[in-house]
Design brief:
Elements lengths: L15 E2 L11 H8 L15 H11 L6 E4 L1 H14 L5 E4 L5 H8 L4 E4 L16 E5 L11 H9 L5 E5 L21 E6 L12 E5 L1 H14 L6 H12 L1 H22 L8 E4 L4 H10 L2 E2 L12 E4 L3 H13 L1
Parallel strand pairs: 1-10, 3-4, 3-5, 5-6, 6-7
Antiparallel strand pairs: 2-8, 7-8, 9-11
Length: 331
């Protein structure tokens, strides 16, 4: 098995870190207040195994019931449990040939018959996803940054009635596209996975969730309880619930990020993106990556077919963006 390789995490200071799609802004002030007022004496007890406080907050935010929500340690754990629950040992699990690297790892780990569907012009094409025993797509896709419209997502769900369709919406908060959560009432085979790491600035906390039909959520809960009955600690549940309830702060920071994204896109003449990163093709991606690294600016580069000519650049603060542009011009 070849494990997933995460972006470099520097220990020393002085780096401009634009390689792991973290949010450049701090969490909502309500998160800090919720932790200050938490009853720390309860840390001697196991947390709520079903993350009730967070499930309620997520359900309220999405207009669902608690029975439609499952929570875990970041969307990575939620996705891994979904692979174990719905794809293990099954053939014909459709997924893009260029997408989130963990999909390939989980396919191997759970013996899922991964069928790579080639991107067309770095885009996911709905008509290419038909008749699978399961589907997983990221929308917007990573690392390309393209997004499907809601009708296009619905087309994929309709075309695969014999398996669960997982839509990984880690970056949907930065997109013009509409979330697939609105389709959950129409389709019992749709699972939408979201994270608090990106738009809610809680990557260091580890919290994520899935939304779907009650029996899909029951299946996830059954597998979770066979693996780890208490995935989210008390403080994580409290903080994430406070974050998702502060919709004003969420809206303010995501708009600031998309504004900075467009400034950087214009400066680099990069293609449009629907995520909190750009997928940019410089004249020489590898040399540009190495030059930025020498100047303590971290971006993401993959020496792989189809994408070895590109860099994925996380959207940082305005100040970080100015320094990145200066460094690119010097190169």
């Amino acid at each position: 098995m070849t494990p997933y390789v995460a972006g470099i995490q520097p220990v020393e200071s002085g780096w401009i870190k634009l390689n792991t799609n973290e949010n450049p802004y701090p969490p909502s002030p309500n998160v800090i207040e919720s932790l200050k007022s938490a009853d720390f004496s309860r840390l001697r007890l196991y947390p709520d195994s079903d993350s009730g406080i967070l499930r309620r907050a997520v359900a309220e935010n999405l207009g669902l019931t608690e029975d439609n929500v499952f929570c875990g340690n970041g969307s990575d754990e939620v996705l891994a449990l979904a692979f174990a629950t719905f794809f293990a040992g099954k053939p014909d699990i459709l997924m893009p040939d260029v997408s989130y690297g963990f999909y390939e790892v989980w396919s191997a780990m759970y013996d899922a018959g991964r069928m790579e569907v080639p991107l067309r012009g770095l885009k996911v094409c709905p008509e290419d996803y038909k008749g699978g025993k399961g589907v997983v797509i990221a929308n917007p896709n990573a690392p390309t940054g393209n997004a499907l419209t809601l009708p296009e997502v619905e087309q994929i769900v309709r075309s695969n009635p014999d398996g669960v369709v997982i839509v990984d919406e880690a970056y949907i908060d930065f997109a013009d596209a509409e979330s697939a959560v609105g389709l959950i009432g129409k389709f019992d085979n749709l699972l939408v996975v979201r994270t608090f790491s990106k738009a809610y600035s809680l990557a260091g906390l580890r919290a994520g969730f899935a939304a779907g039909h009650k029996y899909l959520i029951d299946g996830l809960r059954r597998v979770k309880n066979a693996f780890n009955s208490y995935p989210l600690d008390m403080l994580a549940q409290t903080a994430a619930a406070a974050a998702i309830r502060d919709t004003a702060y969420w809206d303010k920071t995501r708009k600031e990020i998309t504004k900075t994204r467009e400034t950087l896109r214009a400066a680099l003449d990069a293609p449009p993106s629907q995520a909190n990163f750009l997928f940019w093709r410089p004249p020489d991606a590898k040399k540009m990556y190495e030059y930025l690294l020498e100047n303590k600016i971290l971006v993401r580069y993959w020496d792989k077919p189809k994408i070895n000519g590109y860099l994925r650049i996380t959207i940082g603060t305005n100040e970080q963006t100015v320094e990145l542009i200066r460094c690119v011009k010097r190169f």
